[in-house]
Amino acid sequence: FVGTSRVPPAHVPSPNRVTFSMTVTFAKKEIGGAKNGGTRDVPTKKAPTYYPAEDVPVKAPSEREAKSCGVAKLRKSITPGTVLILLAGRFRGRRVVFLKQLPSGLLLVTGPYQVNGIPLRRVNQAYVIATSTSVNVQSVDASKFGDEYFGNKNKSKAKKKGDDFLAADEEKNELSEERKTDQLAVDTPLMTTIEQTPLMAKYLKARFSLSKKQAPHAMKF
């Protein structure tokens, strides 16, 4: 029988191909048995059981991604003292005063609490509308507040069984005296500035809402 054999084409490696290399180290291990040689070289770390079947392209980070380091850039329309309208969360539709941007990229805002009952909190700038109204916040010291200031602290809870589980009352998160003092320290100089501007307190207290045939993209805030 005479046949022809096809020679497979040479494989051209992809420029974005991910190559896996691993340095294997061996250790001597004693083996029992008279005919097993006494020792055997055994790898100290097992080889991975999974390898990608296809070439995985690696996306090179853009210049913007490399400089941002994962932190969102602050919008040009948002500056310290800008009045923002919240679009999501517990206080959606309410107005707050922007203080600064935190290292995580979130915005530090306050009502202030004495005007509309909104305390110091973090919000995402994707869920706010920046207005053209602003308040002077130069006298407000917000250097103390960071991302570690917010969030619930992890408390170890003992497991309860039987009647203890049913009879246990839910623990209420009460505001600490430190939080109350910090809120008052921020609101006091801010209230002085707000009281000097006519109708500013009423503007911050009013809710934002839309009625029929009102397009928010066509409005000037």
Walk me through the structure:
It is a single chain. The strands form 2 sheets. This protein has a 5-stranded antiparallel β-sheet with strand order 6-5-4-3-7. It is elongated, with a radius of gyration of 31 Å. The protein contains 5 helices and 7 strands, in the order E-E-H-E-E-E-H-E-E-H-H-H. Helices cover 19% and strands 16% of the residues. The chain is an alpha+beta fold. It has helices at 63-68, 113-116, 163-167, 177-196, 200-205; strands spanning 26-30, 39-43, 82-86, 95-101, 107-110, 121-123, 128-134. A hairpin with an 8-residue loop joins strand 1 (26-30) and strand 2 (39-43).
Characteristic terms for this protein:
221 residues; five-stranded antiparallel sheet; 5 helices; 19% helix; elongated; 7 strands; alpha+beta
Briefly characterize the structure.
The chain is α+β, with helices and mostly antiparallel strands and 221 residues long. Helix content is 19%, strand content 16%.
Secondary-structure blueprint:
Elements: E1 26-30, E2 39-43, H1 63-68, E3 82-86, E4 95-101, E5 107-110, H2 113-116, E6 121-123, E7 128-134, H3 163-167, H4 177-196, H5 200-205
Antiparallel strand pairs: 1-2, 3-4, 3-7, 4-5, 5-6
- Structural class designation: alpha+beta
Radius of gyration: 31 Å
| Overall geometry | elongated
Tell me which oligomeric state these chains represent.
single chain
User: What is the end-to-end distance?
Assistant: 86 Å
**How many DSSP-defined strands?**
7
Helix percent reads: 10-25%
